[in-house]
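Mods, move this if it's the wrong board.
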Amino acid sequence: MPQQAIRDILQLSPSAQTLSVSGWVRTFRSNRFIALNDGSCLDNLQCVVDFEAFDPEFLKRITTSACIRATGTLTASQGKGQSVELAVTKLEVLGDSNPEEYPLQPKKHSLEFLREIAHLRMRTNTFGAVMRVRHHAAFAVHRFFNEQGFFYLNTPIVTASDAEGAGELFRVTTLPAQNAATNDAGEVDFTKDFFGKSTNLTVSGQLEGELGAMALGKIYTFGPTFRAENSNTARHLAEFWMIEPEMAFYDLHANMDLAEAFTKSIIAYVLERCPEDLAFLDQRLAEEEQQKPKEQRSEQGLLDKLRFVQENPFVRLTYTEAVEILQRSKPNQKKQFQYPVEGWGIDLQSEHERYLVEKHFKAPVILYDYPANIKAFYMRLNEDGKTVRAMDVLFPGIGEIIGGSQREERHDVLVEKMKAVGIEPDHLDWYLDTRKFGTCVHAGFGMGFERMVQFITGMGNIRDVIPFPRTPGKAEF
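Not the wrong board. Structure tokens:
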């Protein structure tokens, strides 16, 4: 008997057709009504059992999260909440679930508790919805770039470079943890390591992505990224997924155009493909907001926020203009910002970014032309000598969701910038070659995929939008 997904069965009309469906029991009421879910959608299929036709001892095995296969005919539902139900003629238990031991009972559990049992939390409505949205958002990423003529490039996960120059790296080594061989200077001798040099997990595929753009025109990467940042916040992960397009012949403004079109396309696709999951998450967020003090509640619901970004043109202004607005703002003048905006040159915080988006412009914002000394070495220096062609895309409720720039294509300028931040040009000679052999104007950006999924789902903690979060002290499952 062919298996059919519950998502598809619920779209069928009642008929005499025999169906077979497998899934996990959510509830079993009155020894008669099984709420069955197979993960294909938010809704359950009600399977109606004639308890007199089954052994009572067998029916005791129909417990929460037991895996079963039900066969029967699809009929019009006699109850509320669904249009069809399965009149069961055959029932099999594929996998028992001991109700005394199973930790997910049919009640509300805290997100903190569910993180401790991440291997089971995808069986809940909330995490099932989040993971389905995550899938469709990922598919939308590939769909967008494919339609725009980009090539998908797989950049290294193990690398000898630190693209950001931040030094927050996970070391990759086969050397012993203790008593590793040292050189004449008393330092670890990485020539005896597997790769013959010091290597780490990637913090970004950007530098290698630029190499691809200098040959293929337009590329994008979409893969795991790692930061050994000891940060226990709702916005940070040690392992996350990054999307990084790089484009030859793009300047800063073309880069901004692409970033705006890209984010809108993802949201539009998910709105189209996940209406039930988003409606559920919208209601969940509304209930969560009601628990907050009135002054801390969001003015927009989840669906409103998504349409807000999709339908509004992004406001574009320079960093300098943004600082002037923030300095004059009431929160700054009344000292309500945690980080006061004292003048030009500061690194803007999330509270500043959200003020610009949510209060001042009431629209998504792209800031550009940042001070050079707070941005990475590879960003193109402007003619004023103090700003670079960097951009950040800011969303409501989350702040920065994309960071990018026009890249520095001039060999001599790039070398000087590398030296100024302590990067030895010889270590990145392969990167500098693109500036020696056919350089051109080019640009790109990076989006943390989990940040995007967090925005789309309304989840307050980034650990709840990735199946198995990696954070300081946490590497279970």
